[in-house]
Amino acid sequence: MVNVWGLVAILLFVLAPNVSSYDRPGPRKNLVIHRSDDDDSSPDQVHISLVGPDKMRISWITKLSIMPTVVYGMVSRKYENSANGTSSSYHYLKIYQSGQINDVVIGPLKPNTVYYYKCGGTFSTQEFNFKTPPSQFPIKFAVAGDLGTTEWTKSTLDHLSKWEHDVFVLPGDLAYADFMQPRWDTFGRLVQPLASRRPWMVTQGNHEVEHIPLLHPERFTAYNHRWRMPFEESGSTSNLYYSFNVFGVHVIMLGSYTNFEPGSDQYQWLEKDLKSINRKATPWLMAVIHAPWYNTNEAHQGEKESDDMKSSMETLLYKARIDVVFAGHVHAYERFNRVYQDKFDKCGPVYINIGDGGNEEGLATEYKTPNPAISLFREASFGHGQLVVMNATHAHWDWQRNDDDVSVEKDSVWLTNLLADSSCKI
């Protein structure tokens, strides 16, 4: 099987231009994580995600076909509730067969409450737990993009595990499987300790496309099966773009690698979603993309997923008074001032690029000089960030780099949302 996946890696360069080919220094080796036990019915790669205001999706994989059932309650080992869900599986290149991918939505759930659960019913041996987001400020988001499965990834995850947060946001490029499907399994096992305890809300990046002309024409096969997000609940018809609410915050997850032109399904959905926002209920607005619209790094310049999407959608976000836009793709950190159409604009969003989670390609170390005035902080280091929404008007952003595996604060700023600025009328 190793030789087969080696041939697939060669096909990557021949048939898949979505994967970047330029050199980046400082990578660490990829990890390989196998199942922790021999029970083919035991839950593997457990992760959770938000569904509406009071529900949670529990997702996991088993080798054997089972009834997708979750039992749960507010007391350990006492499960007063149960729910059934759906399951699926997929083939890739006729040489990889996924396990049974199970998705179960549970709830209604109380806010700011710890729930204990088992995947597969009461006979399952392993108990997990998670905490629901609170129904009042502060709300804490952890943010990191372009994770991968390397030792740098593990360092980032270790730091995040010590950083209290309510929701994790990932702006694309999850496993860096790049057609080699067993890497998806390693990624699921690597993130399980965190992703089974706090909701992970993700969007896709270029490394999720995994499209090979003639051999595998379907795009996003593994991503759509493994990481199902609440798109239907937000009125979207695609798992590649959706929105969700956490108390006081409306988050829009956009798809850089699906159609975004005016008139496209995603564009029309975004228009409708922005019009439906209740700013009294959610005074903060956040958008998440993969390919950044603003970027002073030499990496990933001139790509249509950045430039054309910006041309199509920037004005929509500006008029809606989006407060902050997170992006990945560039393997470095950069924070911009409030910007619109390439210039400072006090009514524009703050753009933050955070594609520095720990992938195998290393860092993008070359920046354009001189530094444009709209770029306030930039550094090519692996790291992660946290946005703490303190109240209806103020939030604090903090980015920490992985400095010899020690998490070190390097950039922080207080943000005031645009709703509080009377001159930025909506």
Overall description:
Pfam families: Metallophos, Metallophos_C, Pur_ac_phosph_N. Residues 43-132 form the Purple acid phosphatase N-terminal domain. Residues 1-21 form the signal peptide. Residues 348-407 form the Purple acid phosphatase C-terminal domain. InterPro entries: Calcineurin-like_PHP, Metallo-depent_PP-like, MPP_PAP, PAPs-like, PAPs_C, PAPs_N, Purple_acid_Pase-like_N. With 426 residues, the protein is α+β, with helices and mostly antiparallel strands. It has two domains: 44-131, Immunoglobulin-like, CATH 2.60.40; 139-420, Purple Acid Phosphatase, chain A, domain 2. It is 17% helix and 31% strand. The chain contains six helices and 24 strands. It has helices spanning 2-15, 151-161, 182-195, 221-226, 265-275, 304-319; strands at residues 44-51, 55-62, 69-73, 81-84, 86-88, 91-92, 96-97, 100-106, 114-119, 128-131, 139-143, 167-171, 200-203, 242-246, 249-253, 284-288, 324-327, 333-340, 343-344, 350-354, 375-379, 383-389, 394-403, 406-416. The strands form five sheets. Strands 14, 15, 16, 17, 18, 19, 20 and 21 form an eight-stranded mixed β-sheet that branches. A six-stranded mixed β-sheet has the order 13-12-11-22-23-24. The chain has a four-stranded antiparallel β-sheet with strand order 1-2-8-5. Strand 11 (139-143), helix 2 (151-161) and strand 12 form a beta-alpha-beta unit. The chain is globular. It starts with a helix and ends in a 10-residue tail after the last strand. Residues 8-25 have low confidence and may be disordered.
